[in-house]
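sanity check this fold:
=====
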Amino acid sequence: MTAAPDSVQSAFDCAFTGMRQVRESFTAQLTPHEVGVITNVATGVARVSGLPGAGFEELLAFPGGVFGIAFNVDEDEIGVVLLGDYADLHAGDTVERTRRVVDVVVGDGLLGRVIDPLGRPLDGNGPVLSRQRLPAERPAAPIMDRAPVTVPLQTGVTVIDALIPIGRGQRELILGDRRTGKTAIAIDTIVNQRGKNVVCVYCAIGQRGSAVAKVVATLREQGAMEYTVVVVAEGSDAPGIAYIAPYVATSVAEYFMQAGRDVLIVYDDLTQHAQAYRELSLLLRRPPGREAFPGDIFYIHSRLLERATHLRAELGGGSLTALPIIETEAQDIAAYIPTNLISITDGQIYLSPALFELGILPAVDAGKSVSRVGGKAQRAAYRAAAGDLKLAYAQFEELETFARFGARLDDNTRKTIEHGRRIRACFKQPECASVSVPAQISILLALTAQLFDGVPLDRVAEAGQALREAAAHLAGDVCARFESAAQLSDGDREMVIQMARQSLAAFQPAAAGKT
């Protein structure tokens, strides 16, 4: 049925009338839009004029999808740290404000992923699926929101768990010369968190791509990537990327901490971070200070590491444990950056190149290493087993140095040295070979009872392995008491020592002679 011409005409008239009314009522709204101009581009930095409303650390947008951070906000121009490839930027290019700061995507979707500090995936597994973002720079938790550090973070490395305990919420520095095993200890600690409900964040700063790929491959082989996030700023990236990397990684970790979870973050390493900041500061004409570092180098690391803490139960009870790594030169721990970080952190693990060259791995120097949280973050069973061991090991290290001069030694001194050598041999441990809590306590009790003293030095490693295997068959209730905060009972101690005596009997010289 065809519509009447009058009705069609009236429909058109009604539509055109409505369109005319909307057009007449519309008023164009003008939005102010600040646009600046690049005046100069240098290595990793740029100078911009014409953005009077830009604030400190605001993110600025450059042509080609490159971003930058307003670093020096001067009266006439802005010094900008560039966060990307700046080869195609030239003087005269336009710059726009974003009216936001650097932020990063956070959430459970990051677990198992490898990203750069701008949140872009580097593992080829597609974009990160999450709706929440957090700014890279965030204030640390107020002191009233913090709880004491009392729960241990087991590294699986016997010498650390026994002599230099780390608590959840602590900041423990790892330092030593180049290639002494610093990263290996951090990776072993991440691997040991499997099944312990601890989220791990590994932040690579200024590392070679091949080194980062090796770390990621190790974490995948050990099944650790399923609870780990890797944030990578390669050495070939712009220095601004290396500068923001640890702050971005900390925001990723803080998301899980605020959700009530325990988190471990590794900064590998802050020496590269300090050097990137020094480079940016000198390029932006900030006044140099000691070793050409700017005066606020202490502040950039302190505000980073202060974010590691243990929150009160009312706030979820989550914790963020930080393991910053720095590299010393010629064993100089009194240099500017090492002394800064030693004063910021709650202790340090020092790796000695002399021990490394002797094949004593991990090359932890117990004399220069310390945990300022100490026994408060250590299980009672460890305190009972390792209390006398620290003194015996310290005495051995002093006497060993004295004995190298060829002096005549009395029987007690010789016995102390032999006992110390067996302690050190038991502390040797290959990479990615975490030792469980029952096995560690069994070894420590056997050392305290001097059960290893009758074992030939060249068989101590074999004897230790036999003892660890025997400890795996301990009763479940005994292992539970090791894990609890209760004191180590005399009965448990005697049972473990008896088990150790039986395990080590086959390695005694008398037993070897009978066989």
Q: What stands out?
A: The CA atoms of residues 465 and 475 lie 19 Å apart. The chain has a mean pLDDT of 91. DSSP finds 16 helices and 16 strands in the chain. The first strand starts at residue 35 and ends at 41.
